[in-house]
Design goal:
13 strands, alpha/beta, transport, 6-stranded mixed beta sheet, ATP binding, binds adenosine-5'-triphosphate, 25% strand, 4-stranded antiparallel beta sheet, globular, nucleotide-binding, 289 residues, 34% helix
């Protein structure tokens, strides 16, 4: 029998408006163990959705269960929050804090009141992200990659079962991004991670599931392979721009790459997840035009 506690997170019919702006419209999904990627154009509603799951924002309507707890009730919210770690888009660093001081400050906000056990937990979280030997360094002296690790350590305080990461790889160089992904993959082996990103490579290399939001609604929910397959037989290259393609761009090789309905005899190539994503979002936009 299926119960509401089978999934770490179950959202049903979440909707939220900011004045006349519909940020989320009837969004439903479930999250299990592993990383679920959240993709979508700017303004699609990703941050709003993450804030709701993080229990920082209350939806206008809909239901949310975190391990069966209802965060829309007082007692449920507290129980749900104890299981959640949140890395917001802007972690609000006090740059003169050391890494330890910042994570300790977050631990205090999370109501870890006993100083000795709190400090042990802060050291554990910094150790988990590989920053044990940098814990006395001021945040302003750390690289972007190390700063993101500090933010992740703060999210890991209290050993949450659900991690919510809002665009954590922005501003990282390729090596830092790869290291950060590796860390998240390790954490997600036994936890549930919801990760919003504009980097389709984050999804390809990390995610078991992917949700595409657009204009506040879920346009796709499934595996990265299924999202990629939406562009199967719809990607080709040629030496000219293709005015009838959904999207067409010049690549570094001098050839143009196109996604759309290929003309007869087109030189088809294997799609990437980005092609699948572009197909989905452009088809939706074409439908709305
Ligand atoms: N506090 C707010 N007040 C008014 N409108 C808001 C507020 N926060 C978000 N919005 C609007 O709600 C919609 C969804 O915004 P949201 O930040 O959730 O999108 P997003 O997918 O995270 O975008 P991005 O990829 O740019 O971060 C947008 O139209 C945005 O302008």
């Amino acid at each position: 029998m299926t119960t509401s506690t089978d999934f770490a997170v179950r959202a049903t019919g979440l909707s939220l408006r900011y004045g006349r702006t519909v940020a989320l419209d009837d969004v439903s999904f479930t999250l299990g163990t592993g990383v679920t990627g959240l993709l979508g154009p700017n303004g699609a509603g990703k941050t709003t959705l993450l804030r709701i799951v993080a229990t920082a924002v209350t939806p206008d309507s809909g239901n949310l269960r975190i391990f069966g707890h209802d965060p829309l009730t007082g007692s449920g919210r507290l129980a749900a929050r104890r299981r959640i770690g949140y890395l917001p888009q802007d972690p609000g660093f006090h740059r003169s804090f050391t890494a330890f001081e910042f994570v300790d400050y977050v631990a205090i906000l999370k109501e870890l009141t006993d100083r000795r056990s709190r400090h042990a937990e802060v050291r554990r979280a910094l150790d988990a992200v590989g920053l044990s030997d940098r814990r006395g360094d001021r945040i302003r002296t750390l690289s972007g990659g190390s700063r993101q690790r500090v933010a992740l350590a703060a999210a890991l305080v209290g050993d949450p079962d659900v991690l919510i990461l809002d665009e954590p790889t922005v501003g990282l160089d390729p090596e830092q991004r790869m290291r950060f992904r590796e860390l998240v993959a390790e954490i997600a082996e036994e936890r549930t991670v919801l990760l919003s990103t504009h980097q389709t490579e984050d999804v390809t290399s990390l995610c078991r599931e992917v949700i595409v939001l657009d204009h506040g609604g879920v346009r796709f929910s499934g595996s990265p392979a299924d999202l990629t397959a939406l562009a199967s037989g719809r990607v080709w290259t040629s030496s000219e721009r293709e005015p009838n393609a959904l999207v067409s761009w010049r690549t570094g090789t001098g050839l143009f790459r196109h996604v759309g309905d290929p003309p007869p005899g087109a030189e088809l190539i294997d799609p990437t997840l980005e092609d699948g994503y572009l197909t989905l979002v452009d088809l939706a936009a074409a439908g709305a035009r």
